[in-house]
Every structure is written in C-alpha cells, then in structure tokens.
Amino acid sequence: MNRPADVDRTLESWLAEGPSQLPDHVIDGIVRQLDTTHQRKHWWLPRKDTMTRSILAVGGVAAAFLIAVVGFAYFSGGPGPNFGGAPTPSPTPSPVALPTDGAVIEPGWYSVTVDGYRYTFRVPNAGWTATVVTLAEAQSEQTIRPNRADVELTQGDASTDPPDLAGFALWGNVPYVHEVDPPCSQDFGFSEYGPGTADDLATAIASIEGWRSSEPTDVTVGGYSGKRLQLMAPGRDKFDSCAEGDVQSFSDENEKARAYEGPDQVDDIWILDLDNGARQLFLITYFPTTPAELVDELRQIVESVEISPAEGTQGAAPTEESRLIARSNGRAVAFDGIWESTDADGSHQTMAMSALPNGTYGVTIRDDRAAVCSGAPSILTGVAETNGPGTIAIGQPEYTCDDDSQPRALSGPPLEEQLQDLSFTYDFQRDALDDSLGLAWSRVVAAP
Amino acid sequence: MDPSLIDRAKRGDKDAFTTLVLSTGDRLYSVAYRMLRDAGRAEDAVQQAFLIAWRELPKLRDESRLEAWLYRLLVNACYAEIRHAGRWQPGLRLVTDLDADANTDGAQLGVDRRDELERAFRRLSGEQRAVIVMHHYLGLSGAEIAETLGLSPGTVRSRLHYARQLMRAAIEADSRPLASGGMA
User: Fold this and answer.
1) Residue A46 contacts residue B36 (beta carbons within 8 Å)
2) ipTM above 0.90, yes or no
3) Which member of B51, B87, B172 has the closest CB to residue A37?
4) Chain B residues with CB inside 8 Å of A1's CB?
5) B-chain residues within 8 Å CB-CB of A423?
6) Structure pTM?
7) Residue B85 gets which letter from DSSP?
C-alpha cells in the first residue's frame, strides 16, 4: 500500500503536468467582449472620499435619466406612509433647463428631455446641486445606450451611519427584480426576469422576500397612470450581513442595481406606464430618521412632474427592449417566436416557442439531421418555465427520432440526463437565445 | 497587485482590466485546466470568469482579495463547465497540442498511472476537484481554500478527505499487479 506521502507526491506530480499559459486568443476574446459587457453599477452608494455625493446612472432606454436629490437630515422622527393624496394642481411653469455643471439651483421649475419626453418639475426650496451627465461622459462610463441623459441633484454628506439622506430619482426599464433573502447580491443569478407594466412591476417588487412593502395603489403623475408602493430595506441584522452595495432590490436592463445605503431605508416608488409602451419609475428614498418636511418636499417634486412628448415627437418611439418585454396577458413575450441554430454536428435546428396561458412556454425543436438519431431527423418537445433572469428551462424534454430509433448520446451521460433542465437565456443586445448546451439561437420570426 | 490598477478597472478602465487579465490569466488558466482536464473548456471557463469579474468588479470591496475573488469566480465557472459537459458533441475528444504537451512533460509518471489518475479524477465532483487542485497544485491550506471558496473549514476538510481517498484508491489500484483473466 502506498503511504499518504507517496500518494501526495504522485498527485502533485501529475497535477504539475499540463499547460500553464493562457493562450493569446483567449485574452483577445476577453478584451473584445469588454465592449459589450457592462459593469454592474450601483446607485446611491456613499463615497467616502468626498463630501459631495456623486450619483451616476447608467440607465435604461425607455426613460433613462436620473434625478437624485440628497439632503441633510439631522432630525428625529420619520415620516409615515402618505398614500392617497391627489397630485398637486400644477401652476403654469416657466421652466429652465436643468443645469449640467453641478450648480446649486434656486427654487423654481426645471425641465429635462429624455427619449422623446419632456419632464418638468418644481423644486420647492433652495440648496440642491444639479449635474447632468453628458452623453460623452456617460459613454466613458461604459454606457452603451445612445439618446439618453443622466441628471443628478446633490446636497450634503451621505457617508454617515446611519446615512442622513433623502432623494428623488427617475429610472427607466427595470426588468430584474431580486429575490434573495438575505438580499446580498454577491452571488450572481440572484434575480428574476421582471414584468413590463407598472402593475406587474409593482406586484413583483412588493413580493421581494424578506423586504417590507405596502400594497401597490393606483397613482397618476403628469397625466400618466400607474402604481405606487413603499419598499423598506431589511433591518440592521440582515443588512449588515451583506457587503456594502450588495443589498439590492431591482436592476435595469443594463444591470444597474438599486443599491441601499442603510437598514430600513425606504423607497417610495411610483411606476408609470407611458403611452409608448415604456415604463417610468420615480423614486423617493429616505430613512426612518429623515424629517417629514424633507420627504414632503420630495413628494411635492414628484407630484409636480409634468410629462409631455418633446417637440417634434409624438412620444418616444418604442425601443427594441420595450417592444420585446411588452406584455401579453401578464407574461413577457421575448421568447415567443421561431428560432434557429446550427448544432455542433452541423445540422440545422428550428425551434418554436409559444407562451401558454399559465405562464409557461411550449417548446418544439426540430433537428433536420440528428447525430443522436444516427442522422435521422428528430423532435424535442417540452414545457419551459421561468427559472432565472431572462431564462426559461425545460425540466424533462422529450426527444424522439423520426425513424423510431432510440436516441443515444454520443458521449457522456445518457441523453435524458444531458437534456435535463435544458435552459434558454434571452440576450437583449443580440435578440438571441443561448441554451445550456452551448448553442446560440437567432430569431427567425417574432411573436405577433 | 497594484491597488490603483484595480481601482481604475473598477471604474471602467478597460486597459487596466486587460493588465489584470495579463497578470493573473496564466494562473487561472492553470487551475482551470487541472480542474477540467480539457484545454478548450478551461479556456471557456477562464473567459467566463474574467467577464463576470469585469461585470462585478465595481462591487469588490477589498481590493487585496482580488486574486482570491478571481479564483472563486473561476471555480464557479469550472463547475458550470462540468455541469454542461454533457452536450451534443462527437464522441472523440480532440487531442490538442496542449494536451500532447501535457502527455509528454511528466516523464516520471507512467502512461498507465496517468490514465488511472485521469479516470479517477474525472469521477470526482467539481467541488472535490476544486479542493484537490487548490491544495495539491496551488499549495493552499484548508483554511485558505475555505476562505477562497467561501466554505467552512470543515467542509473543505471533508471534501479533501474523500477526494484524496478516491485518488489514492486509483493510485494503489494501479500499483497492484494485474490479475490474470480479468475483464478487458
């Protein structure tokens, strides 16, 4: 019998064999893909190296701009929920364009135009600093979306514990709603594909496990209807179990995550359905210790918002994303349609995906020359369910050969095992699907 | 690792990130190859790990732990490769130049023994392969492996124990004289 030391030496000698240099073509591939892989940004994270908070949105397409208002809040006693109030009748505003250079702004009406919509709002009190991130600057921060603007209003120091801040922001499409408890997001694959309407998104956000929320209620802002709810971040114990920035509730399609600064932080979320099919989020955020006066001021800003198509437009044209996540009976339809791919053995495959009334998808894949059927055509069928962000999977696909032969895997485990949990992940950028077997599927026909 | 380089990469500097890839890529690839025993899949795993690292880098809080974090991402990517290994593909594995090099470098191990080790290792789970490679190739202690992979030291000890038992059985089987009349 070998002694343990001999075994270790043998093992180490064997492991020492083999390549140890990463081929250049792999490095080239990684570098090429950096251009199409966006870094996950955090929103409203305190910076410790500056007294001025800097908030950069890498926002969505539908209404991709951000307004953040951060204030001091050295007070006690927090504001309670304040639902049901009718929007304040708006006077005729004479707005000025929001400054772009970090200037402190005076009380008054301001406007900003993004993606074909003009947003006008009233800032009641002095002290806010506004910055608009220009397109060129945004591009330098890995933004890949054109026709967008980022705006921030800042004031004060948010790096205290607990943070003394409150704010107001606008977000665009939010297709990802997180569902982890505790909500640490250091492990990817933490969210699920979200819905495309205000109602569905509000319901999804209100259902985040481990978070406290109010029931979504109807709301109207600037003539557009939608839903409103309050969401409270987990308390101290859970919050502190996550690294800074890892407590998150949802993300936009660029995977910019809504990250929270402290336990019990409240988001007062207003979600509107715009008439171009896009969705607009207004966020007010504050802490239980934030003075009611400050929160009321932020709510006044939201309630003052007027929305109108920008001059020369009839509202923003539906974006590819908004079209693809448009809803059909409460379900995302990005997967619906006819797809095709080329298999590893060179054969041509066609796939039909069809949304079913219960929220699943019927899937049929036709392979014109299946190696596992000795070259005969084959059909794979199954029902796919959502099982991750932009992903659906078939638990147990059925596979049959047209010539009635028994399909057999050419290598590895039995075919049934290889096909188990066959999944498809939708890629917005390419309007394509990637399956868990390594094949890419391109769209042939979209769902009507 | 230069903290300013990591900081620049966190803020979206692709050149800085490329420098990080160049400085850590070989080590990650070495680990991936040893876990997966396949050059192509090791390349895929490394690429996947680096792209996830790029995407998630702004969340990295302790920059001194970059390399450990990269190893963790890599091991997760290797797990995914192992899970997806059963894809439709020709039954014969292509022998790459790198594989050929691998088969000629270790002159001290016989072909039979190497085959036994290869077979035994492929029977290990991804989790067992990870601890074997990290301990016997990288030379990490159980505590270091636990910290890198986010596991408890007890779990690492357990995985290492059972993985080594399996590998040891393979080595000992190879050292026994062949019985006559056995099944081919």
Assistant:
1) no
2) no
3) B51
4) 172
5) none
6) 0.43
7) T
